[in-house]
Amino acid sequence: MTTDTTTKDTAPATAPGETVLDARGVTMRFGGLTAVRSVDLTVGSGEIVGLIGPNGAGKTTFFNCLTGLYIPTEGEVRYKGTVLPAKSFKVTAAGIARTFQNIRLFGNMTVLENVLVGRHTRTKEGLWSALVRGPGFHRAEAASRTRAMELLEFIGLADKAEHLSRNLPYGEQRKLEIARALASEPGLLLLDEPTAGMNPQETRATEELVFAIRDMGIAVLVIEHDMRFIFNLCDRVAVLVQGEKLVEGDSQTVQQDERVIAAYLGEPFEGAPGTEEAAEVAAAEAGATGAAETGSAGPAGSAGKENDR
Amino acid sequence: MTTQTSLADTPDSPPAAAEPPRRGLVPLPAATARALATGGAALTVVSAFLAWTWTSAFPGDLTVYGYPGGLQWQVLIAGVLTLLFALASYGVKGTRWLAPAGADAALKLAALAGFATAWYTLIAITVKLGGLANLEPGGYVTGVATLAALLGALALPFERPATDPADPEDTGWDQFKHNAGNRWSVFKAAFTTGPVNASRALPSYVEILIITAVLALGLGVFTYGIGTEYDELFIGFMIIAGLGFAALNKAGLISRASEITGRHQNITIAGAFIAAALFPFTQTNDQFATIGVYILIFATVALGLNIVVGLAGLLDLGYVAFLGVGAYAAALVSGSPTSPLGVHFPFWAAILVGAGASLVFGVLIGAPTLRLRGDYLAIVTLGFGEIFRITVNNTDGTSGPDITNGSNGIASIPNLNILGFDLGAEHAVAGITIGRFANYFFLMLLITAVVVLVFRRSGDSRIGRAWVAIREDETAALAMGINGFRVKLIAFALGASLAGLAGTVQAHVTYTVTPEQYLFAWPVPPNSAFLLAAVVLGGMGTMSGPLVGAALLYLIPNKLQFLGDYQLFAFGIALILLMRFRPEGLIPNRRRQLEFHETAEAPTVLSKTGA
User: Fold this and answer.
1) What is the pLDDT of residue B538?
2) What's the CA gap between B301 and B553, in Å, rounded?
3) Selected residue with higher pLDDT from B61 and A100
4) Best B307, B450, B456, B461 residue to mutate vs chain A (most A CBs within 10 Å)
């Protein structure tokens, strides 16, 4: 179908060795609607891969397919060579952690408790051990707390460990969600719009954070709308449009790809020079505001119709 | 349309009033007001020693000069409390520790407590004996004294909130609503209190002594309340206990005490159990130990339900069925002549059978239903509760197999005999006779201790955090690797087996188990609706909340029987009011308090999970 322009030569010093994530022909249908159509994507170890696309392109649906929240209608997802189970908690246990587009912290738990919940898959203490409280329980609990505090120090929230997570400012909630995901010791971290609603400074800080996570040896797959963030960060970028992968490659390739521009800005109609179109759009906009204010549609309306044709 | 969205006309906020006048609700100079309140309180104390009526026809014998009786004791206590707060408000040395958050609001509430109790008594005397002629001069003195104290206290100046005047263009009704809202906020401001000022660090032994004193006070108040012999005394007790608690709360003593008990949690819990174990020794007959053991059964089951509802967030409306399963299982193996099994297990085996049967039922019910979320689960559990009752009703040998004797239930269950100790017989300990119900009270206290231990330890662990995570956001919890179904099933089964544990004792205490003991709703607890009410009223997710809630929910209807048909009505109104004004429950989990009162007076930092 779509051309797959995978360019490996742009990879950074840490060459991608083994494939961490290998999604093949992932298709997700909801009734008659195909949200994701036959998408292939691989993420190598030590790689940061970006996934971009206009709103409604199916990025989050694809993420949900990867993490077992949805079971793909067709295709399979392999993590380090093994096919992922279809339950989201098993996916996390296997080594894929994620954050959510709209923050989903456990609001009424403290910051530390949130991270401790992230440790769930890496600890074994069940009900009996909690009731009996043998030395093993105390050891495991202390180890979990130490590890959680390390993570909080890593993201810079150690001094707020006892705060309720719902009381944190927005940017710190985003960071905490990343720390909670990291607590499950993943091999692959999926970030769903980690900088949504952030100011430029916070976005810069998040960039640093993602690089630091990559340096810990964790592969990262990130959805984002902030193009500067994506092209600074990612070794490879895949573009998803209407559920299909349009193009994949390094930031240069993607930025210059006409189809990507078209997907975001709309098709320039054939033969029309860019300047003329821009002028027309400007006229149409002026006309539209004029129409709204004075009630006279005039030539702007016909220009708009011409555009449609 | 256009992008020009004109800014909504923001009404010009009135220029901030320079300094809202500090006036009281009653127009009196501040110094006069304080003196009046203090004098009134002192006179109240004195008047409690006077005779209020001439005949002992009014219960409690209020006819004796020099010795208070019945309701006079309550007025005396309110008077002393008011006096102490009044002195603290003057800053008298040695009383300042009484009001770490400021004495004025506490003084107002204490004066109100004295006024309400005294005037209730006077009105009750007048009505009961027929006419004002039955009041002795002492009664009038009390009435005047408490009124003076209340007026003085209400005249104390306070910080008035800035209020907007009503919009003159509004309709009359809207203006009325607005003005009423203003008046209400001013009225509320009269009872607001400052932040609790920082406490001096006390040596631990002093703190432990304080905990002991608090627990002794709690035991005293509870014993007094449970032992109130006539309706007037209980109503007076409710007035003074409620308003007195509010006064202590406003003074900052409650938060000070919870700070100290929070530092010594284990000692506090152990002390609370010792205090509870001392309860039968304060009683001269078995009557109140009966109430005590029923409260304990109710409270223990409520605490078990709190694991399911409060921690894991699974709304279970049929929880009493698990109590029933445990009770029936224990009854069947108790050696009762009406049990078709005809076996007599020792206690340890019976308790295992009871808890085990409930556990099995919990898993059987939970496995198919826990895949449902929220409302659906509530409906299914409600259905299960009814299925249990109807099944037990029908397995009587005619409609089904003969297992439970149908509506007759399993009767004459023999008393327990643990290691040769007959719980049915009276024993004398240190010269005090410990009757049958007191024996069961001690046994039930052990079970309660087990449930408390299970609640605390499971709540503060990996599995407890998983429960709370599931309650907070199930999708996110799954994405964190929590096996939601498994974790919920553990909570459900654990809650069920704890209820079964209590059921085994309940079967022996009540002699008989019948299906009608395990309904969804019934005026007498325990039933599913009351259990849920105890959890919500006491405070979801806390350990002491359901215990306190259950005690109140058992005691109040029990003591309000004189209301007859209106008992449940009054009770329902009380519950609605409580949920309106304190939705987080009597003993709030600090999390819940933050949830319901976004900004007000809630701590931003949690030091320990739960409360």
Assistant:
1) 85
2) 13
3) A100
4) B461
CA distance B154 to B105: 9
Angle of helix B253-263 versus helix B231-251 axis, rounded to 10? 80
DSSP class of residue B310 equals I
**Is B145 in contact with B40 (CB distance < 8 Å)?**
yes
**Nearest chain B CA: its distance from A254 CA (Å):** 31
Contact B111, B118 (CB under 8 A): no
Separation of alpha carbons A141 and A147, rounded Å:
10
Minimum-distance CB partner of B605 among A109, A119, A162 = A162
Position B404 pLDDT exceeds 50: yes
* Residues of chain B contacting residue A67, judged by C-beta atoms under 8 Å apart: 479
What's the rounded Cα separation, in Å, for the pair A300 and A288? 7
What is the pTM for the complete model shown?
0.81
B9 has a pLDDT exceeding 80:
no
Distance, CA of A249 to CA of B446 (rounded, Å):
68
Between β-strands A236-241 and A244-249, what pairing exists: parallel, antiparallel or unpaired?
Answer: antiparallel
Mean pLDDT, range B11-34, rounded to an integer: 65
Q: Which residue of A has its CA nearest to B3?
A: A289
Q: Tokens 């006064």 identify what position?
A: B247
Task: Decide if B105 contacts B250 (C-beta within 8 A).
Answer: yes
- Euclidean distance between CA atoms A85 and A93, whole angstroms: 10
Inter-residue contact B584 to B593 (CB < 8 Å)? yes
Task: ipTM value, please give it.
Answer: 0.80
Rounded Cα gap, residues B494 and B319, in angstroms: 12
Please answer whether residues B537 and B585 qualify as being in contact, where contact means their C-beta atoms are separated by less than 8 angstroms.
yes
Question: Which DSSP symbol is given to B96?
Answer: G
CA–CA dist A130, B456 (Å, integer): 10
Characterize A154-178 residue by residue with b for buried, 16 or more Cβ atoms within 10 angstroms of its Cβ, and e for exposed: bbebeebbebbbbbbeebbbbbbbb
CB B484 within 8 A of CB B471: no
Check CB contact under 8 Å for B464 and A164.
no
DSSP 8-state class, residue B23: B
Contact A106 B476 (CB under 8 A): yes
Helical (H) or strand (E) element with A135: helix A135-155
Tokens standing for B352?
A: 């295992």
- The beta strand positions in B82-222, using DSSP E, are none
Convert the pLDDT of each residue in B87-134 to its tens digit.
888 887 777 777 787 788 888 888 899 899 989 988 888 888 887 777
| A103 CB neighbour count, 10 Å cutoff | 18
- Can you read off the two tokens belonging to residue A267? 């098709």
Report d(CA B555, CA B590) in Å as an integer: 26
User: What six digits make up the tokens of A12?
Assistant: 């950074």
pLDDT at residue B95 in the model: 75
DSSP annotation of B150 reads H
For A116-144, letters b (16+ CB in 10 Å) and e give bbbbbbebebebebbbeeeeebeebbeeb
Run of H or E residues at A29: strand A19-30
Residues in B touching A87 (Cβ below 8 Å): 478, 483
Using the beta-carbon criterion (under 8 Å), do A108 and B594 form an inter-chain contact?
yes
* Cα distance between the two ends of chain A: 28
Nearest Cα residue to A236 out of A41, A95, A92, A88:
A41
Strands A219-223 and A48-52: parallel
Q: Which of B145, B189, B138, B139 is nearest to B163 (CA)?
A: B189
Burial class (CB in 10 A: 0-12, 13-18, 19+), B15: exposed
Residues 6+ apart with CB under 8 A from B148: B36, B37, B39, B40, B43
Angle between the N-to-C axes of helices B231-251 and B204-226, in degrees from 0 to 180, rounded to the nearest 10? 160
Question: For chain B, what is the total number of helices (H) and then of strands (E)?
Answer: 21, 4
